[in-house]
Amino acid sequence: MLNEIEVFVNVRASDAFGAGVNEDASSQAEVGADISPSRARPRVLLADDHTLVREGLMRLLAAELEIVGAVADGRALVTAAEQCQPDVVLVDVTMPLLNGFDAARQLQRVCPRGRIIFVTVHAEPDYVQEAFRAGAHGYVVKTAASSELVLAVRRVLAGGTFVSPGLVYDPRPGALEEGLAGGELSTRQREVLQLVAEGRPAREIGDILGISRKTVEFHKARLMRVLGLRTVAELTRYAVEHGLLPGR
Q1: Is 50 helix (H, G, I), strand (E, B) or coil?
Q2: CATH code reported for the domain at 187-241
Q3: pTM given for the model
Q4: CB atoms < 10 A from the CB of 52, how many?
Q5: pLDDT for position 56
Q6: Would you list the domain boundaries of the chain?
Q7: Which CATH architecture has domain 2-175?
Q8: CA distances to 68, 105, 126, 181 from 71, in Å
Q9: Which residues touch 185 (CB under 8 Å, ≥6 apart)?
Q10: DSSP string covering 154-187, please?
Q11: How far, in Å, CA of 204 to CA of 122, rounded?
């Protein structure tokens, strides 16, 4: 349901593209990605757990794109994408309930035509590789100029890829084989891992995932055995180190 989604389609275009979008950056955009007023604007869905970031992204992109919504967690993102079918999705790595990596994997199923761009503070090579392994088409660090994100959106909409300058990314297929966030775990185990690390009780986790409390406990025990962890504190530390939770 879309009641958890903030919809910003009524924002005035004159409020968008503030300081930071300069003529030099605009001149770098691919001709094939040009968006004129006479054409239907591409649809974008935003996901970030910080309200200021969501509102900033909305204002930045509203002149060129139709903002179909903004969400604060990975599960709401998957639901919104399935219903809105956006052309491009901006997603953070670290989000409540479902991290950006696993959300991106689900987006490929529910919104296969959507182009995924990660917008995140994580500049480490392992995070960049994991994002593209999860299905990303672009990766922009939040320390970049706003013009860089505009260029990234234009490039991925034109069928290309984009990585912030200075980041290390190896596009060779073999380089994408090794995962960052618990590659030895199943999708369900990674979901349980994040929710347990967030401090949620088994009953709540079961409600979120649509499984029984007993099944939650089974997955928790199995993933801790696979990872060689003994306590929830160790599991939480593992989740932070692998980008599933913000540092505490």
Answers
A1: coil
A2: 1.10.10.10
A3: 0.75
A4: 8
A5: 94
A6: 2-175, 187-241
A7: 3-Layer(aba) Sandwich (3.40)
A8: 10, 17, 25, 22
A9: 193, 223, 226, 227
A10: HHHHTT--EE-TT-----SGGGGSS-SS-TTS-H
A11: 29
